[in-house]
Each structure stands twice: as C-alpha cells, then as structure tokens.
Automatic annotation (TrEMBL), chain A:
Coiled coil: none annotated. GO terms for cellular component: plasma membrane. PANTHER family: ABC TRANSPORTER PERMEASE PROTEIN YPHD-RELATED-RELATED (PTHR32196), GALACTOFURANOSE TRANSPORTER PERMEASE PROTEIN YTFT (PTHR32196:SF19). This is Monosaccharide ABC transporter membrane protein (CUT2 family). The lineage of its organism: Bacteria, Pseudomonadati, Pseudomonadota, Alphaproteobacteria, Hyphomicrobiales.
Automatic annotation (TrEMBL), chain B:
InterPro entries: AAA+_ATPase, ABC_carbohydrate_import_ATPase, ABC_transporter-like_ATP-bd, ABC_transporter-like_CS, P-loop_NTPase. The keyword Repeat applies. This is Monosaccharide ABC transporter ATP-binding protein (CUT2 family). CDD domains: ABC_Carb_Monos_I (cd03216), ABC_Carb_Monos_II (cd03215). One of its GO terms (molecular function) is ATP hydrolysis activity.
C-alpha cells in the first residue's frame, strides 16, 4: 500500500469546478439562479438537489470503505425504506413514518454488520445478500405495485425548501455535519482509520474493532434509509423495482473519487460528498449538452479509470509529481 | 575432500549472493554449495535470509549481485518456471497444488500427455501410478489431492518436481505440519532421491531432523553466512551458537550490578496456563522492577506464551492473578484494562499502522483505553508525541510523518511510546531489537533497564541472548512448545542458556508450527 501524505482535496474541488465550467460552456444558463416562492431554482441548484441521495449514501459508504469493507446493499435498503415511508405516509404522522423507515435502515445495517463482524463473512458477499433480497422485501412491502401518497409532510422532504435551499440538500448537509461531529468530534475517526489501515495491529492496541465494524454498517443503513425517504418524497411514491437501483455503485464511486482507498484507512467524508456531486454534475452536464444519456455511462467509466489509475501504487509515482504542484505547506490539521 | 581439483564441479554453486530491499540488506555476499546426492540443511532464525536466498536462487526475486552455477554452467533464472526448466524445483510448506484436482492431474498439470490436442486420461493415470510407485506410494491417482494427508500431498508435490527433470530440490519446511511417522516417510523419499544423484536443500526448524537426515549444514544469520560444515563436525551446541550468534557492541554487554532488593511486589502470576497444540501449561511470575526473559529457538513457544499472557490468544487451562485478584484475560482489551502492554514481534503486520502519523500511532493505545467518546484533544496528542519523540529520540522528530516512512528502529520506538503512554504495569516486548540497526539496539536496551528501574514489570522475548543476559533477572528457556527451565542469578549466562536449549530434545516434533 502506498503511503500517502495528508491530502487536502485540491484535486477533487478542482475537478468539480472544471465540470461545472464545462456545463456552463455547453449550457450558458447553467449558473443562472432565480428565486421563486422563497426557493432557489437553477441548473446548479439542481445538481445539488439531484445529487443528494447519492451524497447521503456516500456519507455512510465512506466509513464502511475506510474499515476495508463495502456495502452493496444501500440501493436495496433505499428501496425498502422508501417503500415503508410511502406506504405509511397517508395513514400515520410524519414522526412515525420517519421512525419506521429509519428503523428499518438501522436493522438492515445491523444485519450487514453482524454478518461481517461476528460471522466473519467477506463484506462484498455479506452485503450482496441484502442487495439481492432487499429489493424483494421492498416489493413485498409495496405488494408489487407502485405505491403513491399525498401527505404534504413527507412530500416536503423531497420538494420543499429550508431558507431557500431544497430540503434534500439541507438534509444531506445536516447528515454530513452530524456524521462529522460523531466521527471527528470523538476518537472514532482515528479508530476507523487505524482499523482500516491495520486491523490486527488495531485489535492488539485494544480497539474494539468488532463493535466499530457493526457501527459503520448501521450508519450506512441509516444513511441509505434517509436517501430512500428523500427519493420517495421526491416522486410522491415508491417504486420497489427502480428506487435506488445501481446507486450503490455511484456511492462507491463517489467515495473513491473522494480519495478514500478501497484498501481502507484514511478517509474524508466531505470529499466523498464532493465526489457524489461530481458524479451528478457530470450527469447533468451530459443531459444539458444534448448528448444521448447513454454516453453518461462511458464518461463515468473514463472517470473511474482515471481515478483508479491515479490511486494505483505502480502509477502513483508518475502522478506524485503533479500532486506536488498543488500541495500547500504541511496541513497537519484534522481532516474531515 | 582433499582432491577437490579432480572432483567434478558441485551440482549447485552460489557465490556472492547479495540482495537488499529498500535499504535493508537481506543477503550479504552469501556463498552456498550443494553436491549431487547431498541433503544440505539451510538453517537460521527468522529474518536470517533463508527465504530470500531460496527466492534469489529460483529467480522469484532478482539478486543484486552473485553468480549461480548449475553443473558448472552459469544460469540466471528470472522466474520460478525458468528455474524449474533449468532443473531447480522448490516445494513449499504450503503445498502449491490444486487440491480439488486429482493426484494424476496435479502431477501432470500443464504438461498432460495429449493426442490430437485431447488429454489422454488413461495414459496420464498410468504414468502417475508409475511415478508414485517409484516412491513406494500406491494410491488411487484419480482421487482428488485434498482427500490425502498433507504428507502424501508433499510427496506428490516432490514427485511432480522431480519428474520435471529436477536436479536440485528445495524443500522449504516440509515437515512443519507432519507427524512423526509422516516425517519418516518423507525422509525415506529424500534418501531415495539422493541415491539418484539429486541434491536436496532442506529448510527446517527442527534440529533433530537435521541430524537425522542431513549431510551438511549451512547457517545464515542476519543475511550473512554464519557457517557451513558437514553434519558430524557440527555438534548441536555449536549449531545453536551459530544460529543465535554473537554480535554485540561493548555498550550493551555490560551487566549492571544485580541489586539484591527486598522481595518485589507481584504484578501478575500465571499458574498452569496453556493452550492445547500451542504451548504446554506453564507457570510465570512477573514482579515490579523485574525482567523475565524468554529464550528458545524459533517455534519453541515464546511468542505463544506472551500472546496468552496478553489475551491475544485465549488460554484453555490455568489461572491468572493480577495484583492479588483472580482474573481471566480473554482479549487484549481486558489485558490493557489490567495495565498490560504488548509490542509484538511482527512490527509491520501487528504493530504499526503504516499510513497513520507518528502522533496518531503513539496515541492509539491510550485512546483505545479511554474509549472513543473521550478523545484526546489535539493538544494532548501533540504533547504526548512531543514528549515521547524527545524521550526516545525518535527520528526524524516530525510527529506528522506517516510512521511507515520511518526506519525499523524508529518504528519500534513509536510502538514502545504507544504502550509507555498508557503507563503499563507490565510491558511485554517480543523481539524488541529485531531488524533494527546496532545503534538503536543499545538505546532500546538502555530503555528496558530504565523502565525496570522505575518499577515496571517486563516480559521480554529475545533471540539476542547476549543482550538478554544483560538485563534479565530471570530467564525462562523454552523448547518444543514447553517451558523447560528457569534460570536465575548466576545461572543467567549465554553458555547455560545455549546448553539448555540444545539439551537432548524430544525426538517427536509437536504439531504444526503456527508461524
């Protein structure tokens, strides 16, 4: 594993900026923002609004990947929790709806965590179980139909706004702040990075690696539940077949773009969220440019390849020289 | 061997083999000669360079310098396959075959007899039976390899290697997982091969096996050739001395005057603690300001002992008492709560977290003990790092450097700092001076003495006997996974320890070496 000096995320911020500028070139109104009914509208706002579900997923995913794990089930968990929220929305109050959906996400995370930490199943296999089964569970909840609802309370979480910002963006920022406080405000972040970096050494240093492993999967389940609620609230219904479909891959990609290695260790929550918005900015840009949407997948593939090549220890040396140009003086500070 | 000039050239001759990895010298001008029909033991402790030498002669790693001659002809294999084609085959401890394929398929994998591009199964089985018959083995060759014992799997691997026209056969710890009878079968096969003029390099940790089957012994130590002699010219005691060696600077060999103090307070007492198949039940008393050393050869149970003490392995018998109270130590966390600390032997895989900084590595154990919810503030971490970087002279003195970029000695100091930060009552050090330069040796030994003076109890595993005798108040000698002797006072001498290690060992090796 290559040793990396602390990163400051310059490359991710620059990449997001470049993509946004590219969007502006293909669509000159891209940066136009107007206010309507006290809410901001515009293509730029749309990037953040549409990117919110993947950004939420990436907040949980980055912790799992930092622990050398992976959570393939988040898309299916979104479908389950979205289905629960949509089914209950018109008959129960919002707190009950949220508690039920978030509780389901928590249980899904607990299931994954126990499979990985207690039974010692490889994370990719353990979470594959729920990835496959979860969509079936969601279909059972919706009884195979597309469930719709009219509750304005739940709809607010998808289409409303707080201080002019779309609610999904506010929820994402809130979840990010909460996770940062939980992980960087305590010693959990250090313990996660230590365990991901060297699990045996961390266990011998007295870190409760098993407990933390369960914890990160539970958190990933919660993030996925919130993403599922947002997605359902946005379309005023739940489609068990398509909600969150393949979004686990976008979330993993966002984490990797954010500079967290799939080998675990050092991680950055903020940069993972930036990664999610980079992906959404690309999606939006391709739509705006008038290219067929299919090209989106090819562009994404090229980005993934570039990121992975840049992370490869064998090629790392060639990129290191470029990195030096961006590096500021030793930052040293706690990164998020 | 007086008429050397009239003899044919040796089967295999290595001269001046050198190899370094990123500044660490793994092999330093090693010579090695193997004659046809000879079983040649290659011995040495962990890190002595045996594996590197084998990998360098089979082309798995590229040597920096040196020549390799097979039958007097210089060869330079660049991969294991090329080495096999040249006539040098290796059989590793972990049999490198496909367990789900049949014995016959394994024997002829990649070189199956074919007709019109199709594998001739019948012909393959016939040849397989004939081949194994030469080794006195008559088994169903169409059964999957995994249905047979490890010993038979080894013989299949050897048969495959020999059938690929091997002239030189390298056996890397083939007996580690065999029982006594299986070892005999393997030895019979080895002797038969030598009668065909094949030369065998035999790597093992079991000294009695060396004397049972080998013709010649070569010992490596710290990447250098420590000695080479016919087996009957190298008695067991001399062999052990060669393996453990004597390399010491003046500064570390002085033994400080023994302070005959009052009876020290017991920190921890272990009675009858052991684990089946790992280490026989032992008693151990650890006192404040007292250093207990564990001495023995590799695989004798030293590391296993300290892992039981620290709870990294769970004992299946015995009782432990800490500060007068009966305790059960089931995990490192429980051991830490009792005030224990453990610097493991495998620094890279079990000690440091390479990508974290020096500061974070030092804070890790203290943080783990405080729990995630009461984090050490950045200022406390900085103070901790600054204190120990100064105290232990960690270089470079940069707390924000990833610890993987430090030298071995400085990594060891960071690990020591991690545990000293928790102010332990008992500190366990497993090979604290392994793989670090001579200067750092002296510093770490000085540190051990200071800690002891301050009243910490220490349990130290060391292969560096000359060092061990200078600071240990008591030395426990281990052999074949059991504590066999306890030396105190004037008994603590290198010669006494060596003699105890080399004393008539049990003839039956115990079960598999966990290492």
């Amino acid at each position: 594993m290559a040793l990396r000096l602390p990163r400051i995320g310059t490359s991710q911020i620059v990449a997001l900026g470049l993509i946004l500028v590219a969007n502006w070139i293909v669509s000159p109104q891209f940066f136009d923002i107007r206010v309507q009914d006290g809410r901001l509208f515009g293509s730029l706002i749309d990037v953040f609004n549409r990117g919110a579900p993947v950004a939420l997923l990436s907040i949980g995913m980055v912790l799992v990947i930092a622990m050398r794990g992976i959570d393939l089930s988040v898309g299916a968990v979104m479908a389950i929790c979205g289905a629960i929220a949509a089914s209950l929305a018109d008959t129960h109050s919002l707190p009950v709806v949220l508690a039920a959906a978030l509780g389901a996400g928590l249980l899904c995370g607990l299931w994954n965590g126990l499979l990985v930490a207690v039974l010692g199943i490889q994370p990719i296999v353990a979470t594959l179980i729920l990835m496959v089964a979860g969509r079936g569970i969601a279909q059972l909840i919706t009884e195979g139909r597309i469930v719709t609802f009219t509750s304005p309370d739940l709809a607010f979480l998808g289409g409303g706004s707080v201080l002019g910002l779309p609610t999904p963006v506010v929820l994402t920022l809130g979840m990010m702040a909460l996770t940062l406080a939980l992980v960087r405000g305590t010693a959990l972040g250090l313990m996660i990075e230590a365990t991901g970096g060297n699990p045996r050494a961390s266990a011998l240093a007295g870190i409760g690696t098993r407990f933390i492993t369960v914890g990160v999967y539970v958190w990933s389940g919660l993030c996925a539940a919130l993403a599922g609620i947002v997605a359902s609230a946005d379309i005023l219904g739940a489609d068990a077949n398509n909600a969150g479909l393949w979004l686990e891959l976008d979330a993993i990609l966002a984490v990797v773009i954010g500079g967290t290695s799939l080998f675990g260790g050092r991680f950055s929550i903020i940069l993972a969220v930036v990664g999610a918005f980079i992906i959404q900015a690309m999606n939006t840009g391709i739509l705006l440019s008038g290219f067929p949407p299919e090209t989106n997948l090819v562009v994404k593939a090229v980005v993934v390849l570039t990121v992975l090549l840049a992370q490869s220890p064998r090629l790392g040396g060639h990129f290191a020289g470029i990195g030096v140009l961006f590096k500021r003086s030793k930052s040293g500070g706690k990164r998020s | 061997m007086h008429a050397t000039e009239t003899l044919p050239p040796p089967l295999l001759a290595l001269t001046g083999f050198s190899k370094s990895f990123a500044g660490f010298v793994a092999l330093d001008h090693v010579d090695f000669t193997l004659h046809a029909g000879e079983i040649h033991a290659l011995l040495g402790e962990n890190g002595a360079g045996k594996s590197t030498l084998i990998k360098a002669m089979t082309g798995v790693v590229h040597r920096d310098a040196g020549t390799l001659r097979l039958d007097g002809v210089a060869i330079a294999p660049r991969s294991a396959e090329e080495a096999v084609r040249a006539g040098i085959a290796t059989v590793y401890q972990e049999v490198n075959l496909a367990p789900n394929l049949s014995v016959a398929q394994n024997l002829f994998l990649g070189r199956q007899p074919t007709r019109f591009g199709l594998v001739r199964e019948g012909e393959m089985r016939r040849r397989a039976r004939a081949l194994l018959g030469e080794f006195g083995l008559s088994i169903d060759v169409s059964a999957p390899l995994e249905s047979y014992s490890v010993a038979i799997q080894h013989i299949v691997a050897i048969a495959r290697a020999v059938d690929q026209s091997a002239r030189v056969l390298i056996l890397d710890e083939p007996t580690a997982s065999l029982d006594a009878h299986e070892v005999e079968v393997l030895f019979a096969v080895m002797r038969q091969l030598t009668s065909r003029g094949i030369g065998i390099v035999f790597v093992t940790h079991f000294l009695d096996q060396v004397y049972a089957v080998c013709d010649r012994i070569t010992v490596l130590r710290n990447g250098r050739l420590a000695g080479s002699a016919p087996v009957d010219e190298l008695p067991r005691l001399d062999l052990v001395r060669l393996m453990l060696g004597r390399e010491l600077s003046e500064a570390t060999s002085r033994r400080p005057p023994v302070v005959e103090g009052e009876a020290r307070a017991d920190v921890a007492t272990f009675r009858g603690v052991g684990k089946a198949g790992t280490i026989a039940p032992f008693d151990l008393a650890l006192r404040a300001g007292h250093v207990v050393g564990l001495a023995g050869l590799l695989g004798s149970g030293r590391t296993e002992t300290v892992r039981l003490v620290f709870g990294a392995e769970r004992a299946d018998c015995g009782a432990a008492e800490v500060a007068g109270r009966a305790v059960s130590i089931g995990s490192p966390r429980e051991a830490m709560a009792l005030g224990f600390g453990y610097c493991p032997e495998e620094r890279k895989t079990e000690g440091i977290v390479a990508e974290l900084t020096v500061r974070e590595n030092i804070a890790l154990a203290l943080q783990a003990r405080r729990g995630a919810l009461s984090p050490l503030s950045r200022r406390e971490q900085d103070a901790l790092a600054a204190k120990f970087i100064g105290l232990l002279d960690i270089r470079p003195p940069d707390p924000e450097r990833p610890v993987g970029l430090l030298s071995g000695g400085n990594q060891q100091k960071v690990l020591l700092a991690r545990w000293l930060a928790t102010a332990p009552r008992l500190l366990i050090l497993d090979e604290p001076t392994r793989g670090i330069d001579v200067g750092a040796h002296a510093e770490i030994i000085g540190l051990i003495r200071n800690l002891c003076r301050e009243g910490m109890a220490l349990l130290v595993v060391s292969s560096e006997l000359e060092e061990l005798v200078t600071y240990a108040d008591e030395v426990v000698v281990l052999r074949d996974r059991a504590h066999v002797a306890r030396l105190t006072g004037a008994q603590i001498e290198v010669s006494t320890i060596l003699a105890t290690i080399a004393e008539a060992p049990s003839s039956v090796p115990l079960s598999a070496d966990a290492a």
